[in-house]
Amino acid sequence: MYSQTTNRPTPKNGTSENIEARIIEAAKQEFIEKGFEQTSMSDIAAVVGINRPTLHYYFRTKDKMFQAVFSSIVSNFLPHIDAIFSKQEPFEKKLEEIIDVYFGIFSANPMLPKFIVGEIYRDVNHLIGTFCALDYDQYLHHIGELLQKEIDDNHLKKVPLQFVFMTFYSQLVFPFLSRKLSEKLFFHENPEEYSQFLQSWKRHIVAQVTHLLHS
């Protein structure tokens, strides 16, 4: 939790913990929809149904709230990805499971990829700083070590990390960024087919990354 004081008021419509959870969820939706700069503390307070002084008992600054929101997002996938990489399974199997984790999160939060890309363009240092302040870089270091071990054991070809990063994330994220356009171009008669397409696209991602690391 990212609470700022132990002496908080408890609004009549819920416990302190419930109010904090509601604030984080409301802030997440506001940040994802509007971006960091365009979201105000007053906007978040209004969505939750509390006044601004009460909001400040929980989160004194917008940066602290952003940390809590960012943590609530990243904690849904990064520890899982680290655990998947740690399994004694073929690399292709791990890759499929990792894509399933991302697809699940992006399907539940369709605007999340746009939010992440927007924050990269707005202030990448702020995004990275938040990531490191929450100690999530430890997962990236560990995943990097596991990948390096796969390479050292001759299970994977030595490929520059930026190639792996670009190949994987471009193919992972773009279908969600371009979904409305893709539905109009290719699935206008039945937009529900897009979910079926994503399962086929998952196999494509696995094939492309595997080819990069094995050829």
Explain what you see.
With 215 residues, the chain is an all-alpha fold. The chain has 11 helices and no strands. It starts with 15 loop residues before the first helix and ends with a helix. The relative contact order is 0.09. Mean pLDDT is 88; it is low at 1-12.
Short description:
With 215 residues, this protein is mostly helical. It has helices at 16-34, 41-48, 52-58, 62-74, 78-85, 91-108, 112-133, 137-152, 161-177, 179-186, 193-214.
Secondary structure: elements and pairs:
Layout: H1 16-34, H2 41-48, H3 52-58, H4 62-74, H5 78-85, H6 91-108, H7 112-133, H8 137-152, H9 161-177, H10 179-186, H11 193-214
Helix pairs in contact: 1-2, 1-4, 1-7, 5-6, 5-8, 6-11, 9-11
Number of helices: 11
Shape: globular
What is the mean predicted local confidence, pLDDT?
Answer: 88
Distance between the termini: 45 Å
Range of strand content? under 5%
User: Which regions have little confidence, pLDDT < 50, spanning 5+ residues?
Assistant: 1-12
Largest sheet: none
Roughly how much helix do the residues carry, as a percent range? Answer: over 70%
- What structural category characterises the helix and strand content? mainly alpha
The secondary-structure element order is HHHHHHHHHHH
Computed CA radius of gyration, to the nearest angstrom: 20 Å
- The total strand number stands at 0
